[in-house]
């Protein structure tokens, strides 16, 4: 059986990649992808701890989180497409619709 530390290290690496991408990327699509990476790292932690504890609570929370992530991605993509129709760009530096 693979030790829990390997799974936690993998989740930490995935989360770090997502966080780095979230802080450095300027494209809206890439930012959404980085948020999904961070959520997948959290889901991996939930499933690993659930598996090692022997109950299904973490796996149920992971399924709920996956459903919420799918909704978030669909709504975020729809918002970006409507902004692209208005501004002809999805660069987050040039979009200032929600600023004061």
List the helices and strands and how they pair.
Elements lengths: L3 H21 L3 H26 L3 H31 L13
Helix pairs in contact: 1-2, 2-3
Describe this structure in a few short sentences.
This protein has 100 residues and is mainly alpha-helical.
Explain what you see:
- It is a single chain.
- The chain has 100 residues and is mostly helical.
- Helix 1 (4-24) runs antiparallel to helix 2.
- The chain contains three helices and no strands.
Output the keywords.
3 helices, mainly alpha, 100 residues, 78% helix, single chain
> Strand count, sense and closure of the main sheet?
none
Distance from first to last alpha carbon: 54 Å
Shape: elongated
Assembly category: single chain
User: Over the alpha carbons, how many angstroms does the gyration radius reach?
Assistant: 17 Å
Number of strands: 0
Strand fraction = under 5%
Uncertain stretches of 5 or more adjacent residues: none
Mean pLDDT: 91
**SS field, number of helical segments:** 3
SSE sequence, one letter per element: HHH
